[in-house]
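It would be a great kindness if you could assist me with a short task in structural biology. The full record is reproduced below for your convenience:
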Amino acid sequence: MMARRPERERRPESWHAALHRLQRDGLPHALATQVTSAGSTPREPGARMVITADTVFDTLGGGTFEWQTIAAARERLASGEPGMTLEAFSLGGRSGQCCGGFVNVLIEVFPGSRTTLAIFGAGHVGQELVRLAAPLPWRVLWHDSRDDAFPDWAAGQPGLECRHAPDPQAAVAALPAGVHALVLTHDHAEDRALVDALLRRADTASLGLIGSKSKWASFRTRLRAAGHSDETLSGVRCPIGHSGGDKTPYAIALAALAELLPLVETPERGDQRGLDPDELRRVFS
Protein backbone atom coordinates (compact mmCIF):
# COMPACT_ATOMS: atom_id res chain seq x y z
CA MET A 1 0.00 0.00 0.00
CA MET A 2 1.43 3.37 -1.02
CA ALA A 3 2.25 5.89 1.69
CA ARG A 4 0.22 9.09 1.70
CA ARG A 5 1.79 12.51 1.97
CA PRO A 6 0.69 14.66 4.91
CA GLU A 7 -2.16 16.91 3.75
CA ARG A 8 -0.33 19.98 5.08
CA GLU A 9 2.15 19.62 2.21
CA ARG A 10 -0.50 19.14 -0.46
CA ARG A 11 -2.24 22.03 -2.20
CA PRO A 12 -5.44 21.67 -4.25
CA GLU A 13 -4.04 23.91 -7.00
CA SER A 14 -3.20 21.89 -10.14
CA TRP A 15 0.40 21.55 -11.25
CA HIS A 16 -0.15 23.65 -14.39
CA ALA A 17 -1.89 26.46 -12.48
CA ALA A 18 0.90 26.45 -9.88
CA LEU A 19 3.57 26.41 -12.60
CA HIS A 20 1.99 29.41 -14.33
CA ARG A 21 1.68 31.35 -11.08
CA LEU A 22 5.20 30.60 -9.83
CA GLN A 23 6.79 31.48 -13.17
CA ARG A 24 4.68 34.64 -13.40
CA ASP A 25 5.80 35.72 -9.94
CA GLY A 26 9.44 34.70 -10.44
CA LEU A 27 9.45 32.30 -7.47
CA PRO A 28 11.76 29.24 -7.16
CA HIS A 29 10.19 25.91 -8.12
CA ALA A 30 10.83 22.59 -9.82
CA LEU A 31 8.74 20.65 -12.34
CA ALA A 32 8.91 16.86 -12.05
CA THR A 33 7.67 14.87 -15.06
CA GLN A 34 7.36 11.09 -15.30
CA VAL A 35 8.88 10.47 -18.73
CA THR A 36 9.00 6.64 -18.93
CA SER A 37 7.66 3.68 -17.04
CA ALA A 38 7.91 -0.10 -17.18
CA GLY A 39 5.89 -2.68 -15.33
CA SER A 40 3.44 -1.71 -12.60
CA THR A 41 3.71 2.00 -11.65
CA PRO A 42 1.45 4.41 -9.72
CA ARG A 43 1.10 6.88 -12.62
CA GLU A 44 1.60 6.98 -16.38
CA PRO A 45 4.26 8.83 -18.44
CA GLY A 46 3.34 12.50 -18.66
CA ALA A 47 2.24 12.78 -15.03
CA ARG A 48 3.64 15.94 -13.43
CA MET A 49 4.00 17.67 -10.11
CA VAL A 50 5.37 21.07 -9.09
CA ILE A 51 7.63 21.32 -6.04
CA THR A 52 8.70 24.34 -4.00
CA ALA A 53 10.77 24.55 -0.82
CA ASP A 54 7.70 23.93 1.35
CA THR A 55 4.79 22.91 -0.88
CA VAL A 56 3.87 20.24 -3.44
CA PHE A 57 1.24 20.62 -6.17
CA ASP A 58 -0.30 17.47 -7.68
CA THR A 59 1.22 13.99 -7.46
CA LEU A 60 3.19 11.29 -9.23
CA GLY A 61 1.23 8.67 -7.34
CA GLY A 62 2.57 8.86 -3.82
CA GLY A 63 4.83 6.41 -2.07
CA THR A 64 8.54 6.41 -1.34
CA PHE A 65 9.65 7.21 -4.88
CA GLU A 66 7.57 10.42 -4.81
CA TRP A 67 9.22 11.46 -1.53
CA GLN A 68 12.61 10.75 -3.12
CA THR A 69 11.65 12.89 -6.12
CA ILE A 70 10.62 15.74 -3.80
CA ALA A 71 13.86 15.46 -1.83
CA ALA A 72 15.95 15.50 -5.02
CA ALA A 73 14.07 18.55 -6.35
CA ARG A 74 14.45 20.47 -3.08
CA GLU A 75 18.16 19.68 -2.92
CA ARG A 76 18.56 21.22 -6.38
CA LEU A 77 16.37 24.19 -5.48
CA ALA A 78 18.55 24.85 -2.44
CA SER A 79 21.62 25.05 -4.68
CA GLY A 80 19.96 27.82 -6.70
CA GLU A 81 21.22 26.42 -9.99
CA PRO A 82 18.85 25.98 -12.96
CA GLY A 83 18.87 22.90 -15.15
CA MET A 84 17.48 19.41 -15.75
CA THR A 85 18.31 16.05 -14.22
CA LEU A 86 16.92 12.58 -14.83
CA GLU A 87 16.16 10.39 -11.82
CA ALA A 88 15.69 6.63 -12.21
CA PHE A 89 13.57 4.68 -9.71
CA SER A 90 13.30 0.93 -9.38
CA LEU A 91 10.13 0.76 -7.34
CA GLY A 92 11.04 -2.60 -5.87
CA GLY A 93 14.66 -1.65 -5.25
CA ARG A 94 15.66 1.96 -4.67
CA SER A 95 12.16 2.94 -3.55
CA GLY A 96 11.14 -0.23 -1.73
CA GLN A 97 7.57 -0.19 -3.09
CA CYS A 98 5.48 -3.25 -3.86
CA CYS A 99 4.61 -2.10 -7.41
CA GLY A 100 7.88 -3.52 -8.74
CA GLY A 101 7.96 -1.28 -11.82
CA PHE A 102 10.56 1.16 -13.11
CA VAL A 103 10.16 4.94 -13.52
CA ASN A 104 12.27 7.75 -14.97
CA VAL A 105 11.48 11.26 -13.70
CA LEU A 106 12.79 14.46 -15.31
CA ILE A 107 13.33 17.26 -12.79
CA GLU A 108 13.52 20.80 -14.21
CA VAL A 109 14.66 23.45 -11.73
CA PHE A 110 13.67 27.10 -12.06
CA PRO A 111 15.55 29.11 -9.39
CA GLY A 112 13.27 32.12 -9.81
CA SER A 113 14.17 35.75 -10.25
CA ARG A 114 17.19 36.87 -8.29
CA THR A 115 16.12 40.50 -8.56
CA THR A 116 12.96 42.00 -7.12
CA LEU A 117 12.03 45.54 -8.12
CA ALA A 118 9.39 47.35 -6.04
CA ILE A 119 7.83 50.30 -7.87
CA PHE A 120 5.66 52.67 -5.85
CA GLY A 121 3.40 54.70 -8.11
CA ALA A 122 1.23 53.74 -11.09
CA GLY A 123 1.34 57.11 -12.83
CA HIS A 124 2.80 57.80 -16.27
CA VAL A 125 6.43 57.16 -15.31
CA GLY A 126 5.50 54.09 -13.26
CA GLN A 127 3.65 52.61 -16.22
CA GLU A 128 6.61 53.16 -18.53
CA LEU A 129 8.95 51.62 -15.95
CA VAL A 130 6.81 48.47 -15.78
CA ARG A 131 6.68 48.19 -19.58
CA LEU A 132 10.45 48.63 -19.92
CA ALA A 133 11.21 46.14 -17.14
CA ALA A 134 8.94 43.46 -18.62
CA PRO A 135 11.63 41.73 -20.76
CA LEU A 136 14.09 41.61 -17.85
CA PRO A 137 14.29 38.48 -15.66
CA TRP A 138 13.03 40.39 -12.64
CA ARG A 139 10.10 40.03 -10.27
CA VAL A 140 8.26 43.38 -10.24
CA LEU A 141 6.01 44.38 -7.34
CA TRP A 142 3.93 47.38 -8.44
CA HIS A 143 2.24 49.42 -5.70
CA ASP A 144 -0.24 52.27 -5.61
CA SER A 145 -2.41 53.62 -2.82
CA ARG A 146 -5.29 54.22 -5.27
CA ASP A 147 -7.33 51.11 -5.97
CA ASP A 148 -8.15 52.16 -9.55
CA ALA A 149 -4.67 53.26 -10.62
CA PHE A 150 -3.46 50.12 -12.40
CA PRO A 151 -4.09 49.87 -16.17
CA ASP A 152 -6.00 46.91 -17.57
CA TRP A 153 -2.98 45.68 -19.54
CA ALA A 154 -1.09 44.94 -16.28
CA ALA A 155 -3.37 42.02 -15.33
CA GLY A 156 -1.69 38.65 -15.74
CA GLN A 157 1.67 39.99 -16.93
CA PRO A 158 4.49 37.47 -16.24
CA GLY A 159 6.66 38.48 -13.31
CA LEU A 160 4.38 41.38 -12.36
CA GLU A 161 2.26 41.66 -9.23
CA CYS A 162 -0.01 44.68 -8.71
CA ARG A 163 -0.59 45.58 -5.06
CA HIS A 164 -3.13 48.07 -3.75
CA ALA A 165 -1.12 49.70 -0.96
CA PRO A 166 -3.00 52.41 0.99
CA ASP A 167 -0.71 51.99 4.01
CA PRO A 168 2.97 52.78 3.25
CA GLN A 169 4.23 51.05 6.40
CA ALA A 170 2.36 47.82 5.65
CA ALA A 171 3.39 47.88 1.99
CA VAL A 172 7.07 48.21 2.86
CA ALA A 173 6.85 45.58 5.61
CA ALA A 174 5.54 43.06 3.05
CA LEU A 175 8.57 43.42 0.76
CA PRO A 176 11.24 40.71 0.60
CA ALA A 177 14.75 41.47 1.78
CA GLY A 178 17.19 42.72 -0.83
CA VAL A 179 14.57 44.52 -2.91
CA HIS A 180 15.43 47.40 -5.24
CA ALA A 181 12.86 50.15 -4.66
CA LEU A 182 11.80 53.11 -6.81
CA VAL A 183 9.46 55.66 -5.21
CA LEU A 184 7.40 57.85 -7.56
CA THR A 185 3.86 58.22 -6.26
CA HIS A 186 1.39 61.03 -6.96
CA ASP A 187 1.84 62.50 -3.46
CA HIS A 188 4.94 63.98 -1.81
CA ALA A 189 3.84 63.04 1.70
CA GLU A 190 3.35 59.45 0.57
CA ASP A 191 6.78 59.47 -1.08
CA ARG A 192 8.37 60.66 2.15
CA ALA A 193 6.54 58.05 4.25
CA LEU A 194 7.69 55.30 1.89
CA VAL A 195 11.32 56.44 1.90
CA ASP A 196 11.24 56.66 5.69
CA ALA A 197 9.84 53.11 5.98
CA LEU A 198 12.28 51.71 3.41
CA LEU A 199 15.27 53.25 5.19
CA ARG A 200 14.12 51.87 8.54
CA ARG A 201 14.11 48.35 7.08
CA ALA A 202 17.86 48.67 6.41
CA ASP A 203 17.82 45.65 4.08
CA THR A 204 16.89 47.15 0.71
CA ALA A 205 19.44 46.62 -2.06
CA SER A 206 18.90 50.14 -3.41
CA LEU A 207 16.45 53.03 -3.13
CA GLY A 208 15.61 55.66 -5.72
CA LEU A 209 13.25 58.64 -5.46
CA ILE A 210 11.80 60.70 -8.28
CA GLY A 211 11.81 64.48 -7.95
CA SER A 212 14.00 67.54 -7.98
CA LYS A 213 17.07 68.45 -5.95
CA SER A 214 14.94 70.85 -3.91
CA LYS A 215 12.47 68.05 -3.15
CA TRP A 216 15.30 65.86 -1.90
CA ALA A 217 16.74 68.73 0.18
CA SER A 218 13.37 69.10 1.92
CA PHE A 219 13.02 65.33 2.37
CA ARG A 220 16.56 65.03 3.65
CA THR A 221 15.96 67.63 6.37
CA ARG A 222 12.79 65.91 7.56
CA LEU A 223 14.26 62.41 7.36
CA ARG A 224 17.32 63.51 9.33
CA ALA A 225 14.99 64.97 11.97
CA ALA A 226 13.19 61.59 12.02
CA GLY A 227 16.43 59.92 13.07
CA HIS A 228 18.13 58.85 9.84
CA SER A 229 21.87 59.44 9.67
CA ASP A 230 23.65 61.27 6.86
CA GLU A 231 25.34 57.98 5.95
CA THR A 232 21.98 56.26 5.55
CA LEU A 233 20.51 59.15 3.57
CA SER A 234 23.49 59.18 1.21
CA GLY A 235 22.33 55.82 -0.14
CA VAL A 236 19.16 57.34 -1.62
CA ARG A 237 19.36 58.17 -5.32
CA CYS A 238 17.45 61.39 -5.95
CA PRO A 239 16.63 62.65 -8.47
CA ILE A 240 16.32 59.50 -10.58
CA GLY A 241 15.76 59.43 -14.32
CA HIS A 242 18.15 62.06 -15.70
CA SER A 243 17.32 62.01 -19.41
CA GLY A 244 19.31 64.83 -20.93
CA GLY A 245 16.47 67.36 -20.85
CA ASP A 246 13.78 65.03 -22.20
CA LYS A 247 11.11 65.01 -19.50
CA THR A 248 8.67 62.64 -21.16
CA PRO A 249 7.62 59.68 -18.96
CA TYR A 250 9.29 57.20 -21.33
CA ALA A 251 12.63 59.02 -21.26
CA ILE A 252 12.58 59.37 -17.46
CA ALA A 253 11.72 55.69 -17.03
CA LEU A 254 14.41 54.62 -19.49
CA ALA A 255 17.02 56.70 -17.68
CA ALA A 256 15.89 55.42 -14.28
CA LEU A 257 16.33 51.80 -15.37
CA ALA A 258 19.69 52.63 -16.94
CA GLU A 259 20.83 54.04 -13.60
CA LEU A 260 19.65 50.91 -11.83
CA LEU A 261 20.99 48.19 -14.16
CA PRO A 262 24.68 48.40 -13.15
CA LEU A 263 23.70 48.06 -9.51
CA VAL A 264 21.51 45.01 -10.18
CA GLU A 265 24.10 43.30 -12.34
CA THR A 266 27.11 43.93 -10.09
CA PRO A 267 25.88 44.10 -6.47
CA GLU A 268 29.26 42.96 -5.16
CA ARG A 269 30.58 46.47 -5.73
CA GLY A 270 28.88 47.53 -2.51
CA ASP A 271 27.77 50.73 -4.25
CA GLN A 272 24.10 51.47 -3.54
CA ARG A 273 23.81 54.41 -5.87
CA GLY A 274 23.88 52.73 -9.28
CA LEU A 275 25.11 54.65 -12.34
CA ASP A 276 26.28 58.18 -11.63
CA PRO A 277 23.61 60.53 -13.07
CA ASP A 278 26.35 62.79 -14.49
CA GLU A 279 27.71 59.84 -16.50
CA LEU A 280 24.22 59.08 -17.81
CA ARG A 281 23.63 62.73 -18.69
CA ARG A 282 26.79 62.72 -20.81
CA VAL A 283 25.58 59.60 -22.62
CA PHE A 284 22.24 61.19 -23.49
CA SER A 285 23.83 64.46 -24.60
